[in-house]
Each structure stands twice: as structure tokens, then as C-alpha cells.
Amino acid sequence: MEKAVVLYTQKGCFACHGSNYEGNQGPILAGLDAENIKQAVRAGSEDGVMPPFDEEAISDADLDLLATFLSSLTLEDTGVELSSAIVEHLEKVWDALQAGDKAGMETHLKKAQEAAAPPAPPWMNARHNEPF
Question: Among 2, 39, 56, 89, which lies 20 to 30 A Cα-Cα from 105?
């Protein structure tokens, strides 16, 4: 575990994924499937924000260790707390997924995202989300 924490820092993961693995510009990595983490690290993000990391940047052995560590974390480990509104909508997403209801999934994912968004500062025009 200690080596994984060192790798997370040395490879600069914390800059986008947070010093407590809580996410920032990049997503929360806690609890994700280790294979998905490894694939994302090797391929980079589709939008190009995260570059690919080849074996010269991080060895397969170190990537295995790091991905296994990150997948073992929970939201509790990151300090992230989900509001009841977010949890409620994510549960509805799951129900819609099980029912094959794509429109319901999209609706509740959007509502979960809206519930997770920080409120606009008071100096922002709420109608247009821009300064007065």
C-alpha cells in the first residue's frame, strides 16, 4: 500500500484525482475496477485531457499495484459524502438500468449530476449562470 501511495504522488495522479483520491479535474478513482483503471491509464482519456501513460512512464508491475490499491478504496476513504438526493437518483438510475429504461437512466443521471453540482455563488445570475 505504501508504495502505491508513493506512485500516486510521484506519477502526478493527485493533481487531477485529488490528494485524498476524492477527484478534482479527474474522476474519483476509489472502488473502480482495477482493469478499467489500467486501461484508462494506458489509453488516456478520449477527450485528451488525460494523456496515455506507456510502460516507460509507469511499469506494468507498478500500474498493477496502483490500480489494485485504488480499486480497494471506498468513498469513505476519500472523505466524499453523497447527499441523500444524489443517492436517491443513483438508485433510480440502477432501477432504470435493470428495467432497460434508457430514458429513465438519462433523466436520473442528469438529476444526480445537478444535485452534486455546487450552488452558484450569490453574485451569479441564476437564470443565465453568468455575472450580473
Answer: 39
According to CATH, the superfamily of the domain at 2-78 is Cytochrome c-like domain (1.10.760.10)
Q: Where in the chain is the domain with CATH 1.10.760.10?
A: 2-78
Q: Which among 83, 78, 88, 84 has a CA at the least distance from the CA of 109? A: 88
Please list, in sequence order, all residues whose beta carbon lies within 8 angstroms of the beta carbon of residue 101, skipping any fewer than 6 positions away. Answer: none
The C-alpha atoms of residue 37 and residue 30 are separated, in whole angstroms, by 10
Read off the C-alpha cell for 29.
478513482
Q: pTM for the whole thing?
A: 0.67
Residue 58: what residue type? I
Length of the chain (residues): 132
- 75 within 8 A of 31, measured Cβ to Cβ: yes
- pLDDT tens for residues 25-78? 888 899 999 999 999 999 998 888 899 999 999 999 999 999 999 999 998 888
